Write the structure tokens for this entry.
Amino acid sequence: MSTQPQDAETEQPAEEAEEAEPESEHQQRRMAEKARRAEERARTREKRDRVAEDEETYHLRVFRYDPDVDGKGDPYFDDFHVPYEQGMTVLDALIYARDHYDPSLTFRHSCQQAVCGSDAMFVNGRQTLCCKTQLNELDEPVRIEPLPHQEVVKDLVVDMEHFYDQMEAVEPYFQAIDTPEVEDLEEQRQSRENREKIKMSTRCIWCAACMSSCNIAAGDNQYLGPAAINKAYRFAMDEREEDEVKEHRMNVLADEHGVWRCQTQFSCTEVCPKDIPLTEHIQELKREAVKESLKFW
Amino acid sequence: MSQSYDRGAVEDFGRWTEFSAGMWAWILHKFTGWVLVGYLFTHIAVLSSAMQGGAVYTETIQTLEGLFVVRVMEVGLLAAAVFHILNGIRLLMVDLGIGLEAQDRSFYASLVITGAIVVASVPTFLSGLGGGA
Ligand code: SF4
Ligand code: FES
């Protein structure tokens, strides 16, 4: 099993200690809130574990669709009863179902540790990373569907092309004009404060959970979406990029389908498996965009 | 990838039980906004009865205020207005980047305060019913 609860518990304090340094008070409060929620989840987990001992199987209802097979061209749901083991994630359960019951069950996954971002799915009505979601936190039957608002290719696999296009639209790479000469091999240093500022925004794993949860993105296909805007934030706020570059970035962001589309529903922030304060970043960029346009009046 | 399936708006209103606080705030803000716009027009319509003279206006108002539905709708209007104001303040805070981590709690607070004000207003709005305003 990939994410044993014990691991999760030992990991957490370490992470907190690292994060406790020059954090803004704001961020601390947010993390406290997260910790509280995690605790709550741990409690439910414990309770469920006791129940699960006699229950032993978990009931999954999995979305199926396969245009290439007769009779599977119309989406339907399959039921799987997966034997439960302590620490089992939704992804583990899917893998079990595929390996033991139906090898044709298709879904993306790779790292099994919330790093690769390939297994975001719609579990019990919420976008989530399957490898980061404990089975026993969920109500049965556990309904597993592909990410909404993206075309389904097969079973739980969705077409990510559009998401990647949006990510690329914001030029997600460092573009300082004035880079040090290659010969001096000089480092381009960033201040600690600046690094802290963009820290959270660097954590994106391109899972598209946020984009899928956003109903503005669902209605406006050209909207950059939370992940792309967050990506842009990561570079626009980087002090090592010159003003001209930032201006160029702001032009992209302040476009009709850019930051102004966000209506602060907080759906993205709610689902992001990496706890990136997406709405906050979008709002900050909105303020930047206002400042930027006032300058030229 | 010969073919793919468009599931359309999966998260439609049928999933309202799964909506989060921010989503509800958004929906209610839109809804109360439209209610207020709608009220503006009826408000102008009622006021413009004064163009036909003070007596007509007084009579219109008295008839309307004598109706129970109108009183109930007034309470509803107050609820819409108060919520829209409070959530408007919340959104202003969000726009200024203040207290974003408490956005769900501030939404619940708007709801509770709206509820309290509305309940407190009921006696005022329903008083004198039947006995002339
Ligand atoms: S911002 Fe969060 S939810 Fe969106 S793609 Fe990145 S990791 Fe996934
Ligand atoms: S399998 Fe890599 S993020 Fe879940």
